[in-house]
Amino acid sequence: MRARDELILFVSVLKWLVISTVIGCVAGLCASTFIRFIHFVIEQGNRYEHVFYLLPLSFFMANLLSQFVLKRHLGTDAVIAAINKNHGKLEGSFIPTKVINVVLILATGGSAGKESPCAQIGAGIGSVFASLFRVDDIDRRKMVLCGFCAGFACVFGAPLAGALFGIELLAVGVILYDVLLPAFVASITAYQVSSALGVTFFYYPLKFVPAFGQGFFLKLMAGGIFFGLCAYGMIWAIRSSTRVVTGIPIWRPLKGLLGGAVLVGLTLLFSRDYLGLGLNLMESCVRGVPVVGYAFLLKALFTIITLSISRSGSVITPILFIGATAGSFFGDLVGADRATFAAIGFVSLLAGTTNTPIATSILAIELFGASVAPYAAVSCVISFLMSGHQSLYTAQVLAVAKSRGISARLGREMGASDNKT
Q1: Are 133 and 20 within 8 A, CB to CB?
Q2: Is residue 172 within a helix (H) or strand (E), and if so which, with residue range?
Q3: pLDDT tens for residues 357-373?
Q4: What's the rounded Cα separation, in Å, for the pair 29 and 34?
Q5: DSSP readout, 252-298?
Q6: What is the pLDDT of residues 86-100, one digit of tens each?
Q7: Of 270, 304, 34, which Cα lies nearest the Cα of 154?
Q8: Which of 20, 31, 389, 403 is 20 to 30 A from 46 (CA-CA)?
């Protein structure tokens, strides 16, 4: 009997090695094509100093397309809900139908990211292969999740963190161990394909991390609390602004026109640094270059306006920007190394807003080196706890309460009213 069990396990491992490798290759190819196209569009837009004047027009067009043309859009929340409740059966197009909206927003300087479309493309590819192979519901769920994780791996440039991020997004407090192998293989394969196709990633191993002692650990814990409160505030602000904008009795494309005009005014008042992906300023923070103390607040404002008005693009890159600049600010505030806290804030705010402390701790290791691991892990977990039973992804399920002292109904989606703290 034991020999038979071992044979079944061997066949299962071999099966998923093949399936996840194929999904990773195709997802990596498609996601990399999208990433390179987005970067090309952004580079072309950046050639014109005043391209942000087109923000009202791009927001108007994006909202017009959303209202009358692109009605069957497969968003990240829809993918999470499909994996959690429908065995990965996706309704709508497997290719994000609002890719053109993302292009419009990012080309003119809207403060959004590119991660969600890549994850949606990957999930869709997993769904296509599941239909092609005519697998059962359990295997379909695994294949869709493989593609979902592979998409995140491509944009993070971190295969292990990308795999864990996709898995942790499904439910707070639960990790699906049966899908770890195919998710890791798909993510690593997609990452290798992206690298081979010339997609570049941000790496900056920290050369100096303060040793334990001299009050640094107290500063670190205070930083985790600070990032957690920022995460809570960001979730609340995005949800509230979206509700307010939705409730305004104005034609939706006109809301886009007005929102774009507000962003133009803010850009003229402050700086172009808070438009688009903001990769240069974000990387400068991690390298220890000083930035204005209120940079994270301005980026948050630009992002909230962009997402609540256009409802296109991803929030992850702006969250990383906000985390890095908030970390730089906090480092200056407590007299600690600016670069170290920028790197810790980079991952901690993401942990708090998405409830993914393990994935973000691994992300810190993959991007900034192993020496930051104990510090990033502590801060990520504290931020995760401090953000409460909230999430940027409302389809995420609350499987384990963060504290026995908080009343919460387990098994419900994070967007449900009885999960709010």
Answers
A1: no
A2: strand 171-172
A3: 999 999 999 999 888 88
A4: 9
A5: HHHHHHHHHHHHHHHHHHS-GGGSS--HHHHHHHHTT----TTHHHH
A6: 888 876 555 555 677
A7: 34
A8: 31
